[in-house]
Design brief:
- This protein is α+β, with helices and mostly antiparallel strands and about 190 residues long.
- It contains 4 helices and 9 strands; from the N terminus they run ααβββααββββββ.
- It has a 3-stranded antiparallel β-sheet, with no helix packed on it.
- The longest helix is centred in the N-terminal third of the chain and has 29 residues.
Length: about 190
């Protein structure tokens, strides 16, 4: 004689409760998930930058010793950084250029901070193939536009570090920076 599920009565005692089976499945999946998380969290955490790398993520520069017309080279995240104190003449030359005629159209105002138009801060890496342009050091060739000149393939940048001639496709990159005082700038935001 069979019961309502079609199982003989003598074997009905051996059936598992379906809720118990579901519970065991959920418990096994939950334990596996916790185990996977416990394994992956240290791996993912190991990919975070270390304290010494975080310390290099910003660069503080004292501007008080940079005279008008002078540029200095610094380091930012293992790349050269150019900091230039533009003279009024250099600012006028940059402003006189119609930005719409440039390959990478930007005005000097777009490349500097408001009220600090004389401070031009760029990465010293040519946007063509990554060479370091000349023009930030004393007596270096500044090219035909008075800014920077890349000796590798002849890219020439103007006083606002905008590409004017040569194979470079873009202007020298302006990193994130902020002035913490009139004479100190912090490049990078952590």
């Amino acid at each position: 004689m069979a019961n309502d599920v079609g199982v003989p009565p003598e074997s009905a005692d051996h059936l598992e409760d379906p809720r118990r089976r579901d519970y065991l499945t959920y418990a096994a999946v939950g334990v596996a998930g916790v185990g996977a998380a416990a394994t992956l969290l240290p791996l993912i955490n190991s990919m975070n930058p270390s304290a010494d790398v975080l310390a290099q993520s910003t660069t503080e520069i004292d501007l008080s010793q940079i005279e008008p017309g002078q540029a200095i080279k610094a380091q930012f995240r293992k790349q050269p950084l150019f900091v230039r104190n533009l003279t009024p003449k250099e600012i006028d030359e940059a402003d006189a250029v119609d930005a719409s005629t440039l390959r990478d159209p930007q005005t000097l105002e777009q490349r500097t901070k408001a009220g600090k138009k004389n401070w031009l801060i760029t990465l010293g890496v040519c946007t063509h193939l990554g060479c370091v342009p000349l023009g930030a050091g004393e007596g270096e060739n500044r090219g035909p536009f008075g800014g920077y000149f890349c000796p590798c393939h002849g890219s020439a940048y103007d006083t606002a570090a905008r590409i004017r001639q040569g194979p470079a496709p873009k202007n020298l990159q302006v990193p994130d920076y902020s002035f913490t005082s009139d004479t100190v700038v912090v490049v990078g935001q952590g």
